[in-house]
Every structure is written in structure tokens, then in C-alpha cells.
Design goal:
Alpha-Beta Plaits; alpha/beta; 10 helices; about 45% helix; six-stranded mixed beta sheet; single chain; Rossmann fold; 2 domains; elongated
Length: about 300
């Protein structure tokens, strides 16, 4: 897979020279002549590296670098200043803004290519470490810690823009009996397949995690309680028709689900999880294989 490299350069001659040097490298190039266009590309693409000039028409490269480093999404994206700037003071400013490296436009082509490769190699190593810290080792979906972090982000967004969002817990019915009957190896395969099925049937903006054991957390941004209930029910019914297991020994599974809304849990993440758990407990106590929602007394208008 090609690395995605964003080049922020407004001088056509310098841009042409740089792209010629990079044309035989395994990179997909994105070009921005202004800081504004650069941030539009950063929002739309998963950029692996930024090559940045200092002198630009709308904002200087130092400001662009500062804003990149301020944003959590781009925290580990390497920024290489490729510029005519020569003074130590200006280089120090760039480094203070979070630049990864500094190279003059007149530098040897081999040095440029080597520095880019080294920065991208370091980025891949960091990406792997970050992935290990936020992903569940068995199912390869997000873990509970990352899920809670994303819910906190959604809480801030909900308060700021006065929009509702929901959280669901999806629990496999009688999973302990499956482990006892088929063994833990088969149970692990079922969990992996369940995670794949859930991930393949939620919206791109939703966040899925392995909440604990055989429970999965599902964050539904900007979705009210009624639409969230319908989404969870569609998924629950889809699971009923699916077969799980290994070889030809497929088994039918059902899930119980609890849904809560930030509309009723404005004290934070813990209350949101607690209320989803209350709804899940009700679904299980009433016979399992169903979805229940928590609708408590409304505290504040979102």
C-alpha cells in the first residue's frame, strides 16, 4: 500500500522539481498550494506525512505545523519542512512548532529521499504501537479504554452542538454454555466472527468495541434513542439468521441489547454505561434475544 504524502507548496517550479524526485517512490501525492487546502485534505485523507514549505500565501508553514500538532488526529504525522529558510532561528521556530525534520530545497536528492523514508518508517512503527494500545487483541476491534475516550469526545460535541447520541451494549446470549460445550478455542472464533459481523453492519461514523468478555459496546453519534433502537434491532435480527462456528458445525446465536442516550445521562460516561447496562439487564430478565432502551427522567435539554 502506498504511503499518502501531502505536499504543501505554492511555487510551481519547486513543486515540479519535488514531484519529479518523488515520482518513482511508493507514495500517493496530495498537493496543496495554501494552508486552507492542506487542512481540507488532512480532514478527508489519512495522510502519512506532510512536506511543508514555510512561505505560503495564506498562512506560514510554522502556523500550519502548529495547528497540525495541536490536533490529536495528526499527532504522529511527521512534518518535514522543505524550504529555502537557512537561519538557525527559523529552524528553531519550526522545531518548536513540532517539525520532525528540516531540509533545504537545495539538498541532495538522495538525502531528501532517505529522510522521507526514515520518517515514514518511524510513523509506521508508531502506528503499530498505537494500534496495539487501542485495539482488542482477539477481535481486532477497539478496546474499552479507547471506546470510553471516544464517548468523552462525543459528550463534549453533544453539549456544544446540542445533539443527542446513544450508546448500546450487545451481549451474546448463553455464551458461557457455548464455551463449556464447544471449548474456548471455538468460543474465541465465534467472538472474532461476531466482531466482524457487527463491524460490517454499522455505519462508518459509529464506533464498536469489545466491552468485556462477550459484550460489545456500540457508540452511535448524532442519533436519537428511537433511531438507535431501530438500528440495534436491525442488527439483532440479522444475527438471528447467521450461523457461527467452525467447519460444518454451525450454531445459531442470539444477542440481548441495551441502549442508553446522553439525553438522560448528562453526568458522563459512567452513567451512560450504567443506564445501557440497566436496559441490557431488563432485556435478559425478560427472556433475552431482544433490545431494551433506558428512558429515565430527562435532566437537561441537550
Amino acid at each position: 500500500m502506498k504511503s499518502k504524502v501531502l505536499v504543501v507548496e505554492d511555487d510551481r517550479n519547486d513543486l515540479e522539481l519535488l514531484t519529479q524526485k518523488l515520482k518513482n517512490e511508493p507514495y500517493e501525492l496530495f498537493i496543496a498550494e495554501t494552508g486552507k487546502k492542506a487542512f481540507n485534505i488532512l480532514e478527508e485523507q489519512e495522510i502519512d506525512m506532510v512536506i511543508l514549505d514555510v512561505l505560503l500565501p495564506d498562512m506560514d508553514g510554522f502556523e500550519i505545523c502548529r495547528r497540525i500538532r495541536k490536533h490529536e488526529k495528526y499527532a504522529y504525522v511527521p512534518v518535514l519542512f522543505h524550504t529555502t529558510v537557512r537561519t538557525t532561528d527559523e529552524k528553531l521556530i519550526g522545531l518548536e512548532m513540532g517539525a520532525s525534520d528540516f531540509l533545504n530545497k537545495t539538498a541532495d536528492e538522495r538525502e531528501l529521499l532517505l529522510r522521507i523514508r526514515n520518517l515514514l518508517h518511524a510513523k509506521k512503527a508508531i502506528d503499530l504501537l498505537v494500534k496495539c494500545s487501542v485495539k482488542d487483541a482477539l477481535t481486532n476491534i477497539y478496546n474499552k479504554m479507547y471506546f470510553q475516550h471516544r464517548i468523552e469526545d462525543e459528550i463534549h460535541r453533544s453539549i456544544r452542538y446540542k445533539r443527542e447520541f446513544c450508546c448500546a451494549i450487545v451481549d451474546i446470549d448463553h455464551f458461557r454454555q457455548i464455551n463449556d460445550r464447544m471449548g474456548y478455542a471455538s468460543g474465541d472464533r465465534i467472538l472474532k466472527k461476531m466482531a466482524q459481523m457487527l463491524e460490517g453492519n454499522i455505519r462508518g461514523a459509529d464506533i464498536l468495541c469489545r466491552y468485556s468478555g462477550d459484550k460489545f459496546g456500540w457508540l452511535l453519534p448524532e442519533t436519537d434513542i428511537d433511531d438507535s433502537y431501530l438500528a440495534v434491532e436491525r442488527l439483532r435480527n440479522f444475527i438471528i439468521t447467521s450461523k457461527f462456528g467452525s467447519n460444518d458445525e454451525g450454531i445459531s446465536l442470539t444477542v440481548s441489547c441495551g441502549v442508553s442516550s446522553f439525553l438522560y445521562a448528562q453526568s458522563g460516561v459512567k452513567e451512560l454505561f450504567y443506564q445501557a447496562g440497566v436496559a441490557l439487564k431488563k432485556a435478559k430478565s425478560e427472556g433475552r434475544n431482544q433490545t431494551r432502551v433506558y428512558k429515565g427522567e430527562k435532566k437537561l435539554e441537550v
